[in-house]
Write a structure and sequence with these properties.
It contains eight helices and 25 strands. The chain has about 425 residues and is an alpha+beta fold. It folds into three domains: about 70 residues, Immunoglobulins (Immunoglobulin-like); about 100 residues, Immunoglobulin-like (Sandwich), CATH 2.60.40.1080; about 170 residues, Muramoyl-pentapeptide Carboxypeptidase, domain 2 (2-Layer Sandwich), CATH 3.30.1380. The strands form eight sheets. Strands 1-7-6-3 form a four-stranded mixed sheet, with no helix packed on it. A four-stranded mixed sheet has the order 11-18-17-14, with no helix packed on it. The N terminus is likely disordered.
Length: about 425
């Protein structure tokens, strides 16, 4: 019994050994196939060079893709919202995330680049196809045939370009034109504009970009990005020389000057020392109606300075001269005999100072005072014409019909009547 048991055990062991060899061979073959498959996949995805790279970038950063490929190559990107690459192989990081760039040469070789972009998730740059250069500032100015561009590295969110609906214009004296401004990128953090003119005697421009032709000649109007002063655009303005305003009919009645029937007191035309009409009752009644209209718009306007006698104006002017000197005083205060306040037709509203500008009352006054017979007598950008600084608080009564005509013309009273405002000395 014991002998038979031993033989059976030996036979069983031999049988197990014989069955294990094929299994081992199969396992070895599987492992070899797996290694070969991995090698083939790697070769197919990375080319004969088998190279792959990891690149880290920040939003807004640009860098040229560097490869070991010797033949000309093209690039494809897995997510063009994360990274952009142009025909010169310049990569630009647009938004946080990951993407893959595959560079493939004409010989069939490939290299793979795994890109990780980090940065503020709330800051992204324009997507591919946007013509804005996202990491450079672009300065463009044009005339009839010239365009010039400059570039400089910028932080994300900066204004990088300005486009206008026109870059050259011809106007007649008194005409207006305002270009539409487009700043890029669309998500720039501050798109505030600053407007300037190279020659105020030819054309002026207000803070909105409204260009007004003043006199014959050529000048340049520029709009600049406050966020990035290196970025600007310009309009070449030509004003014809044969359209200047013809002076109106000038009459001197009892020492008082009237132009086309309108009483004038400015730096050129003075009032007699004994001229003392007091507050004009028609003008005051018109102001009262205007005050009620403003109140219905939930605004409060009041007269803080109205009629002044010659003596009062003399004391006021001399006080400013003693404080700031005559040259400075002449920019904001009239010499005695030359002040509109002496006509009884002019009023200062609420506060005669710079803080009144841009208040709701100042904005309402500028848009509506003409309806009640008034004009803003010393508008912004017309200092060289009126002779005085911008005074949004100073209104002058002309009567409803005349005020409407002056308002619609966009001209100062001097321009409208074709007269000057300059002291003889």
């Amino acid at each position: 019994m014991a002998k038979n048991t031993k033989k059976k055990g030996s036979a069983s062991g031999a049988k197990q050994s014989t069955m294990g060899a094929p299994m081992l061979l199969l396992v070895l073959l599987c492992l070899a196939g797996l290694v070969l498959g991995v090698w083939l996949i790697s070769t197919n995805s990375t080319g004969t060079s088998g190279n792959s790279h990891e690149i880290a970038m920040q939003v807004g950063q640009s860098r040229t893709l560097e490869t070991t490929l010797t033949a000309p190559f093209t690039c494809s990107v897995s997510n063009d919202k994360i990274i952009r690459i142009d025909e010169n192989h310049l990569m630009t990081a647009l938004s946080p995330g990951t993407a893959v760039i595959v560079a493939e040469s004409t010989s069939g070789s490939r290299e793979t680049f795994y890109i990780t972009v980090s940065g503020d998730p709330n800051v992204t740059l324009p997507p591919p196809g946007d013509t804005t250069t996202t990491t450079t500032s672009t300065t463009t100015f044009s005339s009839d045939a010239t365009t010039t561009t400059t570039t400089a590295t910028l932080a994300p969110g900066s204004v990088t370009g300005i486009e206008l609906t026109f870059y050259a214009i011809s106007l007649k004296v008194g005409e207006h034109k305002m270009p539409i401004v487009t700043m890029s990128p669309a998500n720039a953090t501050d798109k505030t504009e600053k407007w300037t003119t190279s020659d105020e005697s030819v054309a002026t421009v207000d803070w909105l970009g409204n260009i007004t032709a003043v006199g014959a000649g050529i000048c340049t109007i520029r709009v600049t990005s406050v966020n990035n002063p290196a970025v600007y655009a310009e309009v070449a303005v030509t004003v014809a020389g044969d359209t200047a305003q013809t002076p109106g009919n000038i009459e001197l009645i009892n020492g008082v000057t009237y132009v086309d029937g309108i009483l004038i007191a400015n730096k050129t035309y003075a009032l007699p020392k004994d001229y003392a009409p007091g507050v004009n009752t028609e003008a005051k009644a018109a102001f009262d109606r205007m005050q009620l209209a403003a109140a219905s718009a939930m605004l409060d306007i009041n007269i803080v300075s109205g009629y002044r006698s010659y003596a009062t104006q003399e004391a006021t002017y001399n006080r400013f001269v003693n404080r700031d000197g005559q040259a400075a005083a002449d920019t904001y205060s009239a010499r005695p005999g030359h002040s509109e306040h002496q006509t009884g037709l002019a009023f200062d509203i609420n506060y005669a100072g710079a803080s009144f500008a841009n208040t709701p009352e100042a904005e309402w006054l500028a848009k509506n005072c003409w309806k009640y017979g008034f004009i803003i007598r010393y508008p912004e950008g017309k200092e060289h014409i009126t002779g005085y600084q911008y005074e949004p608080w100073h209104v002058r009564y002309l009567g409803a019909d005349t005020a409407e005509k002056v308002y619609n013309s966009g001209l100062t009273l001097e321009e409208y009547l074709g007269i000057t405002s300059k002291y003889a000395d």
